[in-house]
Design a protein that fits this description.
The chain is of the alpha+beta class and 576 residues long. Helix content is 45%, strand content 24%. The chain contains ten helices and 22 strands. Strands 3-11-14-13-12-15 form a six-stranded antiparallel β-barrel. A five-stranded mixed beta sheet has the order 1-16-17-18-22. A four-stranded antiparallel beta sheet has the order 4-10-9-6, with no helix packed on it. A hairpin with a 3-residue loop joins strand 19 and strand 20. It is elongated.
Length: 576
């Protein structure tokens, strides 16, 4: 707490009082002179904020690479173009590759090799997973997409309710109650769904029978038997021992892949369940708030705005979680597909019905398919590195989502403890005159940023991310943004300039008010309790405080009962 100004001694006050009496007499003779500055006490919103600068980025950024060594034939997009997932970004010149395919097919035809071989179990599992991925029937991804869509709808409703509350378009009590009840019902249904989903995932993980690695385990056990059979007569680098070591390594690798996938599935289900629990808690708080609301006063309106703002913040966090869960589901699906593909290719290679010439042909066809570079996601092309006639290298394209933006910033170690997830942030930019946007803190790094050498920086800084809540902004990727993070806020409280507060002889906080008497006004010391403090103002509370009362702003020569002179116009405004 800042130090208060100490009240002047009684002996000095007595001297001042004599002067005051003299001034009083003069004042009555010259009523135009103003001897006391006053301000009317009013309720306001107090805020403490920390200012930062950050860089505008896309929430979803995709870099496109290619491992092919064929020159770029055509580039179909430019910077700024909007693309959909699967749109062709560029194509490679595959004339040489197509000739190789024709030649290889001719070799197969001339040798009467049957390329229509029977699929192994591993290939069937891979093909089944691939079909589900392509036609959008993968259960995990479908559930994640549904959760994302629900979170998006909830967020849009929260934004609408919050904006309506800001504009004074508050719903009547009955409508608010129905809305809150429906929100709670929906949240509870989601919670039940995610609880059931978590239980199913956990049951699946707990009952994992490792069907996919039985063949690997059997191969390892066979190799172990063979190794033990010849152990006494074969050197360590002999074929049976090498065969066992290879089989053991393959078994352990596949088992780890499945274990990791199961762990990620369980973590994702737990995150979804936790988000649903928080949504129910938020909805219950919202419903209780609606039930407790009585009259539509200015205070209740402010509380309603804050309530909708809290719901909006929770909805934004839930949406971010849904996005992360969806991305995780896609990642898990891709990893599982890759694992099944490896197993399928191994089975195909080991299969006696597959000729080496067929395998070569299939590899050529795979290269041909990969020679058409497609957009990995919806978004805007923000960089093009592909050059016609050149062999692809590095990042060929960058595709970013310019609708959903975030801002990254660095916070000093002295301020980081004041930050929490969900805190509101005001966003401005010198490049956009007069515009102001809303955001929230959506991510806080758990460790300090590293220096270029890999060690922690001398003065620790922590990375944070701010999700931009406002839609249709003029913010562009790469812009520098000025951020104001509201770390503390109180609404509908009495606030005065800090210098108005002083202390009495007993060390108690007081303010001086102008109290009307028969002969004019006199100073009256009023005890107060000091609450939240900002750089310039402080919250005060206590008995006797009323809106509109006149507060004496200069307390350097005041004492309890001192006569003061207040300009009539100012006094009239205060009485109103």
């Amino acid at each position: 707490m800042k130090a208060r100004k100490i009240i002047i001694p009684v002996s000095v006050i007595a001297g001042v009082a004599v002067v005051a009496v003299a001034i009083s007499a003069l004042g009555k003779a010259a009523s135009a002179t103003v001897y006391a500055d006053v301000t009317a006490l009013e309720k306001k919103t107090l805020q403490n904020a920390i200012s930062l600068t950050g860089t505008v980025e896309s929430t979803n950024l995709n870099r496109v690479f290619s491992s092919q060594n064929y020159p770029v034939e055509s580039v179909n997009v430019e910077i700024g173009d909007t693309v959909k997932k699967g749109d062709i970004l560029c194509t490679l010149n595959t004339e040489e590759l197509q000739n190789q395919i024709l030649q290889q097919q001719a070799v197969i035809d001339s040798n009467n090799i049957n390329s229509e071989y029977q699929l192994s179990d591993a290939e069937k599992r891979y093909q089944d997973a691939l079909d589900k991925s392509r036609d959008g029937t993968d259960t995990v991804i479908v559930n994640a997409e549904q959760s994302l869509e629900n979170a998006k709808l909830t967020l849009e409703k929260a934004e609408l309710d919050y904006n309506n509350a800001l504009e004074g378009k508050n719903l009547d009590s009955e409508t608010q109650l129905k809305s809150a009840e429906l929100t709670l019902k929906s949240a509870k249904e989601d919670l039940a769904y995610y609880q059931n989903n978590y239980n199913e995932v956990k049951e699946t993980v707990d009952s994992e029978d490792y069907y996919a690695i039985r063949a690997e385990k059997k191969a390892m056990e066979d190799a172990l038997w063979e190794r033990n059979e010849y152990k006494m007569i074969l050197p360590p680098d002999s074929e049976p021992i090498k065969k066992y070591n290879d089989a053991k390594l393959a078994y352990e690798k596949v088992k780890k892949t499945i274990d990791d996938a199961n762990s990620e599935k369980l973590d994702a289900a737990q995150q979804q369940l936790t988000a649903a629990e928080k949504a129910v808690e938020s909805a219950e708080i919202s419903l209780q708030s609606v039930l407790d609301t009585s009259e539509s006063t200015e205070r209740s309106r402010d509380e309603t705005v804050q309530n909708f703002k809290s719901i909006l913040t929770n909805a934004q966090v839930a949406y971010e979680n849904a996005v992360n869960n969806y991305n995780l589901a896609v990642k898990e699906s891709d990893a599982s597909l890759a694992s099944l593909k490896v197993s399928a290719e191994k089975e195909r290679t080991l299969s006696t019905v597959n000729d080496s010439q067929v395998i070569i042909l299939e590899s050529y066809k795979a290269k041909l398919e990969d020679s058409v570079i497609k957009a990995p996601a919806d978004g805007t092309v923000t960089s093009v590195g592909a050059v016609e006639g050149s062999i692809p290298s590095g990042v060929l394209f960058t595709v970013e989502d310019t609708e959903n933006l975030k801002i990254t910033a660095s916070v000093s170690e002295y301020d980081i403890t004041a930050f929490e997830l969900g805190m509101p942030v005001t966003i401005k930019s010198d490049a956009i005159s007069g515009a102001e946007y809303d955001g929230i803190i959506s991510k806080i790094a758990p460790t300090a940023e590293k220096s270029e050498t890999g060690g922690s920086q001398a003065a620790g800084t922590f990375a944070i991310e701010i999700s931009v809540l406002s839609k249709d902004t003029e913010l562009l990727i790469g812009m520098t943004a000025k951020l104001s993070v509201i770390t503390e806020e109180k609404t509908d409280v009495y606030g005065v300039m800090y210098d108005i507060i002083t202390v009495d002889e007993d060390g108690n906080d007081i303010i001086y008010i102008a109290e009307k008497t028969n002969g004019g006004y006199e100073a009256k010391a009023l005890p107060v309790t000091v609450g939240m403090e900002t750089d310039f103002e402080a919250e005060i509370s206590g008995e006797g405080l009323t809106g509109g009362m006149l507060i004496l702003t200069d307390n350097t020569t005041l004492y309890d009962g001192a006569p003061v002179f207040v300009e009539e116009n100012t006094a009239s405004e205060g009485d109103e």
